[in-house]
From TrEMBL, chain A:
This is Cytochrome c oxidase subunit 3 family protein. It holds the Pfam family COX3. Its main location: membrane. The lineage of its organism: Bacteria, Pseudomonadati, Myxococcota, Myxococcia, Myxococcales. Residues 23-212 form the Heme-copper oxidase subunit III family profile domain.
Automatic annotation (TrEMBL), chain B:
This is cytochrome-c oxidase. It is found in: Membrane. Its main location: membrane. Belongs to the cytochrome c oxidase subunit 2 family.
Automatic annotation (TrEMBL), chain C:
Signal peptide: none annotated. Keywords: Electron transport, Heme, Iron, Membrane, Metal-binding, Respiratory chain, Transmembrane, Transmembrane helix, Transport. Belongs to the heme-copper respiratory oxidase family. Residues 18-525 form the Cytochrome oxidase subunit I profile domain. InterPro entries: Cyt_c_oxase-like_su1_dom (IPR023616), Cyt_c_oxase-like_su1_sf (IPR036927), Cyt_C_Oxase_1 (IPR000883), Cyt_c_Oxase_su1_BS (IPR023615). It is found in: Membrane. This is Cbb3-type cytochrome c oxidase subunit I. PROSITE patterns: COX1, COX1_CUB. SUPFAM superfamilies: Cytochrome c oxidase subunit I-like. It is a multi-pass membrane protein. The chain crosses the membrane at residues 33-55, 83-105, 117-136, 156-179, 200-225, 256-275, 282-301, 313-338, 350-372, 384-410, 422-442, 462-487.
UniProtKB/TrEMBL annotation, chain D:
InterPro entries: Caa3_sub_IV (IPR011743), Cyt_c_oxidase_su4_prok (IPR005171). This is Cytochrome C oxidase subunit IV family protein. The chain crosses the membrane at residues 12-30, 37-57, 69-87. It is found in: Cell membrane.
Length: 212, 373, 540, 122
């Protein structure tokens, strides 16, 4: 019961083992996240097969340029998170906090763009299912595209929020000096989560915005 | 032999061309299962007695497998299973592929009835009349949720999907009446969604069809065939009865709190359901299913949209706007129903929609008439 | 009583070192968590059993008997939901797995004890949400939640969906914990080739849990969104495809049947070895077939959809792969029987349940193979034949294995012995009652009795009456178990550390074990279940 | 976790590649428009980017054993569900409403309640 005082837990035997266990646990969790998104990709694939033309047309209603900016933002934020891990491994706590903050800032930027886009869809009536009011596309297929669009980006945005919360908590920990060159499991593991959320976007981006 | 097995296994009669083939495989698999289970149990029992514990300090040798045993353990069941699968799949493909000379019947499932439509008419609800000795292809669809068209005596079953068509086929071997049941859970009266297949001799069938197609009747609901008129009571048909006067048990859509739920109770208590149904069939009064928002043709020739105002008016003063085709027999409920009850009733009627799916336009790439690609 | 005398019980055990309520509710001890899960799943079994009895009583007559059609529809839905998600999926892994897995590996705890505790509360939260839905107005969709019925049903489907969704996370956490524990917390001497087969079974199960459960989570979420927000992803009037829902559902739910059966198979392996005093026959084959099931099990989900409008190609694909999964089970059955050969067999109650398990699993499994034979399934799909098939496996096999585990590990968990005669009586009642309940259902299915039917043709009545009679016997048997186990908790004679003389690794710790499982660090020097030497393992 | 003095520039290099690939995807998708190849190419690029992120940002290269195979396995199962469901949908026979009898089969709201008492004609 030494967990309150020291971050090392004795039932792991060695510190290296604890780190391995934490990493493995996180990877398994990431694996399950991949499968959480699976249904949406499957729905996308099947409906795109059913309604190919509608999907092409529907995709034109999206802001491809801004999505590219979003992609760049996420990719860059990933770099900063990787740098955070890099610097905490060398024990630089403030640098870590700083780069994490930058990454969070980029996440905020991403979500702002997303929110603006949602607002635009709202005014256009390009909404999912029952709310679909877009006139130039048929309901069959068209509404499905937007359903999938909102589900994919929405579930992704929720993950972004969680990941940003996680990074915020890491910033706080780093500032409070909880992480050192020896003990920084949370930073490593939290970073993994951020990268995974980034990876989802790497697929969502071409699938939704670059349909041809 | 076939008959013995069929009876032991309680299988229904084999009234279609595929039933015998399906059953033969059934017999083989079930017999094997029983034999294997008995052997294994017997072997275990033998081991338990032969190798029973003799002292608390017994030691036992470590016995490991050899390659031969492994191959045997894997090989024998695997070959058996695969052999069964291939025989079964061969039959399955046959069951999935209607022969080119099949006649078509369109089947629409809806909560909770089966409707059959012949090309060039007529329509029939609850009874599908087919000739013996001729393959019949069914094209199934549904108006609301998934149903499943199941005829035990033919060993066929096929889901009817909303928004899409599926197909199955059968060829009846002997005249008679066969029970059709809905096998996919579809709501309150799933267990009553029965119909029947009446297999007529080719001559009777031809005569019946001629009768149905004569003149303007062709689009109407089918009437019984000559053999049925002679000998009436049909057990399966009786089950396809939607009697709002004896609703068995509690009505659908929740019992608690909501306004609509209360409306439902009011409707039952005030006797509305004596004349109105909620499942789409007409009774003394028009059905309430999909009433809200419907364009009603009145006896006066005008049409009205059934909105809240119209609904209220119809309850308070029914003689004012009589729906075409109905007698003005509905009592006025002015002063009988409380305002809250009226509101609840209206709310209830609004919930009675046969799902959003009603608006579906079912379409697909191509319709392939049998025979030609 | 057995040769493990000499080794002594620990004075301080996980049960008596702290006894406040708080020390239970906030415990991170995997053993206490296991016990909490055990209590919870037994309550769920009781609840599901009550629903089952209501179903059976209603089916006594062809027409309405005690409840209305609406209530009946809710009952089988709640029965299915409770039994599958509240009882069977967590039953063996979360209760017994949590208790013995770390001990078997020689670890002090699972890798993430806090997450482990969280999984209890997540389960409780999910179960509470489900119960809330049940009380509110229940759901009438069947445990399969097929769209579009589930998206339009006016009953309280939504809270039940969300309850199951939440419980899913508990499952994922348990799986994640077990995998990590196996990888990182093995004691010295615990090579990969020595890992007990129960642990292998849990490992395979965990993989399925982690992979499949999120898929279920998302598909339930999709139905939720459709109900609450009308996003219409499966809505045919918007061009959606209801069959796609079935793919997503069964992609989870077929592997889920292996989530239920694999741990049961692990239990059987342990019990067969212990009571035959025999090394397992074909350790590798059993371990490999566990992973065979876990992997190939993911390829056969479409065998639930042979008549759903799925393509003929699809049916063939899923059908042939179902045959391949079946093989792995066959391998295990042969190995268990072969293990008994040349053993020193003591027919105790756990072994009796194992015999029931093997016999009923063959029946359930072979009828599974029969329904996987596409042409036969057309007649059987959604009839009582299917109901009988899965009850043969889930009740006849898995529930028997649960009872075997309960009796086998009862002294380990609570340090008490249960009364032998009563346990025999109830075991025989249960096995016999089971057969009387579910054998007639095969015949009903053949006759063409569809499932989820409130009313049925009168000529089928006598079979239903028989089935209800059997169910009453079953309920009586369970009641008996409940009574004598509760009695034994308090008045049962104290157990020795290793009452069965088993060589399973979990018996290296005391019965009940010390708070951190072992009083000294254990070393594993022999193969698991090595009975070539007369003395039992030493207790650390 | 004895980190061998690894330089920051490695990460930056990976990042540059990622940015270039992103821009490439965009150019391909909006300017070049390779038609039928657009889906495979854009997904191909996404996979390459994922591998880069996983290997270097997520330090998969440093990992051993089980930690290494988790992600590939989950992707495998994603592919399984996606591939098989899609294949099944593609092999289905899709039938449309047959000619001639639209009226009766069209699932639609009835235009009026003019339905007669049970048993008699329409
Ligand atoms: C724990 C639960 C469990 C398990 C383990 C299984 C195991 C199997 N199941 Fe079952 N199944 C269910 C639970 C389970 N099932 C449930 C709940 C449903 C219904 C769901 C619903 O619709 O509500 C269902 C439904 C179901 C269907 C769909 C039926 C339908 O709805 O139309 C099918 C079809 O193929 C099927 C097949 C199989 C097969 C092939 C196996 C195999 O894994 C079986 C393997 C075992 C053996 C094969 C026995 C051992 C073999 C031998 C001893 C060898 C004999 C030797 C020789 C022949 C030489 N199952
Ligand atoms: C693990 C799963 C499980 C278990 C254990 C059971 C157990 C039982 N089931 Fe059920 N069943 C399902 C899973 C299960 N079932 C599923 C998934 C469905 C499909 C639902 C659907 O269609 O959606 C179904 C459907 C189903 C039907 C079909 C309903 C229909 O289609 O209309 C029937 C009908 O007879 C039935 C009966 C029974 C009976 C009599 C038992 C009996 O074995 C129950 C006996 C148990 C008890 C009476 C409880 C006693 C317990 C205690 C006293 C607690 C103390 C215990 C200890 C200390 C050990 N079940
Ligand atoms: Cu229609 Cu069940
Ligand atoms: Cu299955």
């Amino acid at each position: 019961m030494s967990t309150e005082t020291s971050p090392w837990e004795e039932h792991f035997g060695s510190r290296e083992n604890q780190s391995h266990a934490a990493q493995l646990g996180m990877w398994i969790f990431l694996g399950s996240e991949v499968l959480l998104f699976t249904n949406l990709f499957v729905g996308y694939a099947v409906y795109r097969y059913y309604y190919p033309e509608v999907f092409v047309e529907a995709s034109k209603h999206l802001e491809t340029g801004w999505a590219t900016v979003q992609t760049l933002l996420l990719v860059t934020s990933s770099l900063f998170v990787a740098l955070a891990v890099h610097s905490i491994r060398q024990g630089k706590q403030f640098l870590t906090a700083l780069v994490l903050l930058v990454a969070i800032g980029m996440g905020v930027g991403f979500l702002v763009i997303k929110g603006w886009e949602y607002w635009k869809h709202w005014t256009d009536g390009a909404l999912p299912g029952a709310y679909y009011r877009l006139e130039d596309l048929p309901v069959r297929g068209g509404s499905l595209f937007f359903t999938l669009y909102f589900l994919l980006t929405g579930v992704h945005a929720v993950h972004m929020l969680v990941a940003m919360g996680l990074l915020g908590w890491l910033v706080w920990g780093a500032v409070a000096g909880k992480y050192t060159a020896e003990y920084h499991i949370p930073v490593e593991v939290g970073g993994l989560y951020w990268h995974l959320v980034d990876v989802f976007w790497l697929f969502i981006y071409p699938l939704l915005y670059l349909v041809e | 032999m076939n008959e013995v097995f069929r009876r032991i296994l309680f299988l229904p009669e084999q009234a279609s061309t595929i039933a015998k083939d399906v059953d033969s495989l059934h017999y083989v698999i079930i017999t094997t299962a029983m034999v294997v289970a008995t052997l294994v149990l017997g072997l275990s029992a033998y081991f338990i007695i032969r190798f029973r514990r003799r002292s608390e300090t017994d030691v036992t040798p470590k016995i490991q497998t050899t390659l031969g045993w492994e191959v045997l353990f894997v090989g024998v069941p695997l070959t058996t299973f695969l052999a069964w699968f291939f025989i079964g799949f061969h039959d399955f493909i046959r069951m999935q592929t209607p022969p080119p000379d099949a006649m078509d019947v369109y089947v629409v499932g809806k909560q909770w009835m089966w409707q059959f439509t012949y090309p060039e008419g007529p329509n029939a609800i609850g009874v599908l009349r087919v000739p013996v000795g001729r393959p019949v292809r069914l094209l199934l669809t549904s108006r609301d949720v998934i149903h499943s068209f199941y005829v035990p005596a033919f060993r066929i079953k096929q889901d009817a999907l909303p928004g899409a068509y599926t197909q199955t086929w059968f060829e009846v071997t002997k005249p008679g009446s066969y029970r059709v049941m809905c096998a996919e859970f579809c709501g309150l009266k799933h267990s009553e969604m029965w119909a029947e297949v009446v297999a007529l001799s080719p001559e009777d069938y031809e005569a019946w069809m001629q009768e149905q197609r004569r003149g303007p009747v062709s689009r109407r609901d089918a009437t019984p065939s000559a053999p049925e008129r002679e000998e009436s009571q049909k057990p399966a048909r009786q089950a396809v009865r939607y009697d709002a006067q004896e609703p068995h048990g509690e009505v659908m859509y929740g019992e608690r709190g909501t306004l609509a739920a209360r409306g439902e109770r009011v409707a039952a208590e005030r006797g509305c359901l004596k004349c109105h149904t909620v499942d789409g069939t007409a009774h003394i009064g028009p059905t309430w299913l999909d009433l809200y928002g419907r364009r009603e043709r009145l006896a006066s020739g005008e049409t009205v949209v059934a909105d809240e105002a119209y609904l209220t008016e119809s309850m308070m003063n029914p003689r004012e706007q009589v729906v075409a085709g109905f007698e003005p027999v509905m009592p006025a409920f002015l002063g009988v129903l409380e305002a809250a009850e009226v509101a609840a009733l209206v709310e209830y009627i609004k919930t009675l929609r046969s799902a959003r799916l009603e608006t579906i336009r079912s379409e697909g790439p191509v319709y392939e008439p049998i025979g030609g690609k | 009583m057995n040769p493990s005398a000499g080794s002594s019980q620990p004075e301080v055990t996980y049960l008596n070192h702290e006894t406040t309520v708080g020390s239970w509710l906030l415990t991170r001890d995997h053993k206490r968590i296991g016990v909490m899960f055990l209590v919870l799943v037994i309550l769920a079994l009781l609840l599901g059993g009550v629903f089952a009895m209501v179903l059976r009583i209603e089916l006594l007559t062809p027409g309405p008997t005690i409840i209305s059609a609406m209530t009946y529809n809710r009952m089988f839905t709640l029965h299915g939901v409770t039994m599958v998600w509240l009882f069977m999926i967590p039953a063996i892994p979360s209760a017994f797995g949590n208790f013995v897995l770390p001990i078997m590996l020689g670890a002090k705890d699972v890798a993430f004890p806090r997450l482990n505790l969280a999984s209890v509360y997540i389960y409780v939260a999910g179960a509470a949400l489900t119960l809330f839905g049940m009380l509110w107005s229940g759901a009438d969709t069947g445990w399969t939640f097929y769209t579009p019925y589930s998206t339009t049903s006016p009953t309280a489907v939504t809270p039940i969906l969300m309850g199951v969704f939440v419980i899913g996370f508990s499952t994922i956490i348990t799986g994640l914990n077990f995998i990590t524990t196996v990888h990182t917390l093995r004691a010295p001497g615990m090579h990969w080739s020595r890992i007990p087969l129960f642990v292998w079974a849990l490992y395979g199960t965990s993989v399925i849990q982690v992979v499949a459960t999120p898929v279920l989570g998302m598909v339930l979420l999709l139905v939720f969104f459709e109900r609450v927000l009308g996003v219409g992803i499966f809505d045919p009037s918007r061009g959606g495809d209801p069959v796609l829902f079935q793919h997503m559902f069964w992609f989870y739910s077929h592997p889920a049947v292996y989530i239920m059966v694999l741990p049961a198979m692990g239990v059987i392996t342990e019990v067969v070895c212990a009571f035959s005093r025999k090394n397992i026959f074909g350790y590798k084959m059993i371990a490999v077939s566990t992973f065979g099931i876990a992997f190939v099990g993911f390829f056969s989900w479409g065998h639930h959809m042979f008549v759903s409008g799925q393509s003929t190609f699809g049916s063939g694909f899923f059908g042939v792969l179902s045959m391949l999964v079946a093989i792995f089970t066959a391998i295990k059955i042969f190995n268990w029987v072969a293990t008994m050969y040349g053993g020193s067999i003591d027919l105790r109650v756990p072994l009796l349940y194992v015999l029931g398990f093997i016999f009923l699993l063959i029946f359930g499994g072979m009828t599974g193979v029969a329904v996987a034979t596409t042409s036969l399934d057309v007649h059987w799909h959604d009839t009582y034949f299917i109901v009988a098939h899965f009850h043969y496996i889930m009740v006849g096999a898995v529930l028997m294995a649960f009872l075997a585990a309960l009796h086998y590990w009862w002294p380990k968990m609570f340090g008490r012995v249960y009364p032998e005669r009563w346990s025999f009586l109830s075991a025989i009642t249960i096995i016999f009652g089971f057969i009387v309940t579910f054998l007639p259902q095969f015949l009903l299915g053949n006759l063409g009795m569809p499932r989820r039917y409130y009313q049925y043709p009168a000529e089928m009545q006598w079979l239903h009456v028989l089935s209800t009679a059997g169910a009453s016997l079953l309920a009586f048997g369970f009641g008996l178990i409940a009574i004598y186990l509760l009695w034994s908790l308090r008045y049962g004679p104290e157990s020795t550390p290793n009452p069965w003389g088993s060589r399973g690794y979990e018996w290296h710790s005391g019965s009940p074990p010390a708070p951190h499982n072992f009083t000294q660090a254990p070393r594993f020097e022999r193969e698991v279940h090595d009975y070539t030497v007369p003395e039992a393992p030493r207790v650390y | 976790m004895a980190e061998k003095k690894k330089s920051t520039w490695g990460y930056v290099a990976v990042w540059i590649v990622l940015v270039v690939l992103t821009v490439l995807t965009w150019v391909l998708g909006t300017k070049v428009k390779p038609g039928p190849y657009s889906l495979p190419t854009s997904l191909g690029i996404a996979v390459v980017k994922t591998v880069l992120v996983a290997m270097f940002f997520m330090h998969l290269v440093e990992q051993r054993g089980a930690r290494r195979v988790v992600l590939p396995i989950s992707v495998l199962f994603l592919g399984l569900l996606l591939g098989v469901s899609l294949l099944e949908a593609m092999t289905r026979i899709r039938m449309a409403r047959p000619d001639g009898i639209q009226e009766e089969l069209e699932p639609k709201r009835p235009a009026s309640t003019r339905t007669a008492p049970l048993g008699s004609d329409h």
